[in-house]
Task: structure prediction
Amino acid sequence: MKLERLLLHHIEMPLVAPFTTSFGTQTVKRTFLVEARLRTADGRTAIGWGESVALPDPVYSPEHLAGAALVIERWLAPALIAAGEVTAETVGHLLRHVVGHQMAKAALEMAVLDAQLRAEGRSFASYLGAVAPTVPSGVSVGIQDSVQETVRVVGGYLEQGYARIKLKIQPGADLAPVAAVRRTFGDDLPFQVDANAAYTLADAAHLSRLDEHGLLLIEQPLGEADIRQHAELARRMSTPVCLDESVVSAEAAADAIALGAASVINIKPGRVGGYLEARRIHDISRAHGVAVWCGGMLETGIGRAANAALAALPGFTLPGDISGSDRFYTEDVVTEPMRMHDGVVDVPTGPGFGVEVDPERLERFRTGVTEVESAAR
Ligand code: NPG
Result:
């Protein structure tokens, strides 16, 4: 296939409620959707959609939204256009000369992958080798103003039927809300916490006090670069240590596993450069008996659909952050937003990621559009 034209649709979607993590509070989702137009070998046009998961500010990872758009426009898209022949499987290789920028690369690979699968009439789930028609749906609960409010919010999600609760924690908002949720909802609640790198190894004794609450895991307690220190922490607490921010590639996953820094891995395709690298991390982890689950970055219906297919691979043995669209949005950009029912979401079966962008909603959410075009078209 040849990449002919690329549009970046910059959008803003209001969140149903503010979402607070240890690195800040979000009230609106700002991102861009990638619309790629490719020409197939037999002369047909295939359109595919991707999305960026970069945040407006570089507070979760070094990338940020405006930077991701610039890197795509200036270096990545021109490289794919210049390559002539492009497939989803070669995007990563064609972009390897650009250091880092995994989220930018992932957004682009996504759009090519969706276009390619649509041209073949094949679903992403079938392409990946997904083995389940539905996947368990977990919900991520932000840091609340009080313990009482935390318990109320968690109770609301459990009433809706979510299969697992992940609670964001930070110093000063950790032991008390965790103890209250466990006490209120009982020992059978699948329950985990996420620190988003808010602690240091000096907090090991404090963090080990979480052990008595029977958590599924603690996610990314220490800094992104602290792989060795995560291994040390894992020796000092019985709660399984799960890495998120630290795992930026399959190599990083292999190192973390070898060093004993992760007994569980959160796989986010955007963080690791795309869905194909995400699958490699799944494969490596599975071969080592390390459980994986699919993370979330408040994706629109496009990214959520793709995540559901990924999470249907056999190594995804823990519920993912794949909540229904209504967890964050009153309206989504796709015609059939992801819906949680009975604690699960359905894995899409249509061609590509299996969702259609709603032109009217896209127009309404859009704050701007930029274009990269092949001169040779
Ligand atoms: O359901 O998409 C969701 C939210 C899951 O908590 C969630 N994501 O650190 O994992 C995280 C967190 C996050 C969101 C990180 C946005 C970065 C950006």
About this structure: The chain has two domains: 2-120+356-373, 126-346.
